[in-house]
Amino acid sequence: MAADTPPESAPPEPGNVVIKTEPEDGDDFLPAPREAPVKREPAVPLQSPVSGLQPLSWSLDHRLAVCTSSALAVMELRCDVQSSKQELSLHRTHVPVPSEAHRLRVEPSAELALAREKFSLYPDPMVRQAFLADTVMNPSVRAHKGMKYACWSPLGCGESGRCLLACLTLDNRLTVHSSHGHLEWKALVNLTQKYGERLKERRYARKDDKPPEANLLDYAELQRRFRMQTPLRMAWSRIYATKKVQPDNSCVDEEMVLLAVLMENGDLVLWKFMLPLAHKDPAAFYDLIESGVSRPSDVAWWEYENGPRRMGGLVVGSEVGPIKILPVSLSKVKGYFTVRHPIVLWKECDEIAVDNIRVVPLTHPVHKSSCSLIVASRGCYVFWSLLSVSPAGLSVQNSHIAGLHSLPVLSLAVPQHELAIYSCSMDGRIKRLTPALTESSVTFGTEDAVQPETLAGRRVHGMAVSCNGAYAALVSTQGMVGGFHPINRSYQVHFLTLKTPEAAAPLLLRSPEQNLHNATDLLDLVRWQVLKSKRVPAALQEELDRKLLEEDSPYLWRVKLFVARVLQQSLKVPSTEDKWRPRQRETKVLVQDLKEEEEEVAMEKDAAEVVELESGGGVEKKPEDYRAEVQTLINAAEMHLMRENMKKVLGVVYLNTWLPQNTCIPTCGLMDYLSRDPDDRDSEVLIGHIKKKLNKQTFPERCSLCQAPLPFTDCKQAVCENGHVWLRCVLSYQACQTLTFRRCLLQDCIARLPEPEDPEWIKKLLKAPCLLCDSPMI
Ligand SMILES: [Zn+2]
Ligand SMILES: [Zn+2]
Question: Where is the DUF5921 domain (predicted)?
Fold first, then answer.
């Protein structure tokens, strides 16, 4: 590989000051100087104004949801290995706001009509005004249209292991959506309607089941019945493992996820989703917690893990100041204990609203015990509370970080696997807080992230950070123009880097999840650097080679393959052909398509050669040799991953086939293919075992058009003697002889759809993510 050159990065900006708010006694924390955020292209324009208080939310599967007044705009970050463009590759979809207005209902309707008449003409102006201005109770005021809030479930709840999306509109319709295929959204359940029906059946009783004494002509009662079903915020729990006892007394492991919905009156309604989701009616009522928090503002799940003991609860904040943790009964979940009483984190009613509650699990470096750090924004301050459970009992410490921002904090974000909290205020200033635990307290190292020029003077509505902390997304609009507010506003989403590609590469290689798709944001930084410099950074290459010598892990091979593919793209010049022309994606056309692409590549290669020779290139080898070398690397990495997976598939076949029984996996073809490499001892042994067991069966595949046998000569496609071409599924190696199949997100592989008559073990094989890029097969 060619030697590395220093990466192109933004010039160091002045004023990158490191501020510490706390004295440093006994604190060994020293914040490393970080580079200023660099703006990434493109800035995405929004079609309608932003709505809701927390308009941005970034999922663990790299989709950014933006609440707007017409729809929930979703942008999916993809590390496109087929593109040589340096900008971010974002796939846009949206969940529209329903056009018909939604009204919450309370019963009995005759009484409601009377009450509405009574309160709209009520003599006491305090009551009358409150009623007339209420968009929920008074039908003659038009409710605002748009999204109020959206939040993503953990990974693995939706189709193909992706995230579910809970959307709440400003007219109080709470629905849960799942993405279907590459571009479609499907509504799974309307929780507002479901809860409304439940309340009606229970005659609007409280949790204690006592029917209400007053009727709707009582203002407080009217308000109570509406507020108890008006959703304010929601939060998804982690995925819990439960046990289900079957009729024959055996236990089956099951998984569930809970969605907590905070209502206007402080009630927390918990919905249970059993996984995998049922097609019909996926949500069931789980529990109701009356928090008693007046004027609630935000909710978040709290998890505390100390060895095998776990506790769960919900942190609820109020607009007037208090924050507390409410116990959630998780008695059926393995290893969970229920907290007996609510834990008060802040009790002063100081009229500073709580928002952006985030929970950060920590291990205490001195006491070696686990603690939980809860942070929340309160005006211009960041509130923190440190909880730890020791044999002496529960200890709670809390305080505020002051002087961080001069304007109210809009958003707080905590990336996964990184001990950092990002805060952003209304003027778009971002700070990075690094908590450091000392013997008796917590200190926060703070760093200013210099504001990029493009955002200067713009009004920021929110910030979200990608799951591994590689990017921040900000949604903004024009500020004052010449001392006046602009007549027409436009809204944009900007992407900023929070890490340098040099910092991202080691994180990528050390990623605890060992899944390329889960590290998409870090991977995109590496992709960007390779495309810019047209070579693999030497540090990354060395570290990758060293790690591969230590451990032959498929994850590292995937990183290697990805980097080589991007390098190949970087050696091309962008094609001038119109990319927007739709391409047919049917099996038969694909081969022709591939030919076209080859021609295109050949043309591009010629062009690239000219460019490189002209610019001197910095590459000592001839460009064609260099490209051939990269192609060899790609082929070798693909082949390695394919062979490893073939062995895995054969191992599963070996375990699951009994006596003369047919399997649709081309077992003999796979064995012949694998045995072509004489140096692979593992596969030799495996093949020996299978041959003994299969007893001369051959499992031939036949072409469905001409019945000729399909030979196993290529692991990506099968061609019969009459020239019919079928693509092979990379998960089961069968030829896909149907017109419908799944493609991975990066579109480098295909997989067949599971059939109802497939045995369980084949269905399980087909559930795996893409072999080459780890992304879900959709
Ligand atoms: Zn044929
Ligand atoms: Zn793939």
Answer: 500-577
Between helices 623-656 and 587-615, what is the axis angle to 10°?
150
Distance (Å, rounded) from C-alpha 470 to C-alpha 502?
Answer: 11
Which residues pair with residue 361 across a beta bridge? 372
Do 533 and 8 contact (CB within 8 A), yes or no? yes
CA-CA distance, 342 to 345, in Å (whole number)?
9
- Nearest one of 698, 554, 569 to 637, comparing CA atoms: 554
pLDDT at 107: 85
CA distance 572 to 611: 10
The whole-angstrom separation of Cα 171 and Cα 702 is 57
Backbone φ, ψ for residue 23 (5° rounding) = -65, 155
pLDDT in tens, 57-69: 999 999 999 999 9
pLDDT on residue 560: 96
pLDDT tens digits for range 602-623? 444 444 444 443 344 444 667 8
Distance 537 CA to ligand 2 centre (A): 23
Cβ neighbour number for residue 144 with a 10 Å cutoff: 13
- Ligand 2 centroid vs 536 CA: distance in angstroms? 21
- Among all bound ligands, the one having the nearest atom to the CA of 703 is 1
CB 155 within 8 A of CB 162: yes
Residues with a beta carbon under 5 angstroms from ion ligand 2:
744, 746, 748-749, 770, 772-773
CA of 497 to the centre of ligand 2 (A): 25
In the chain, % of residues over pLDDT 90: 61
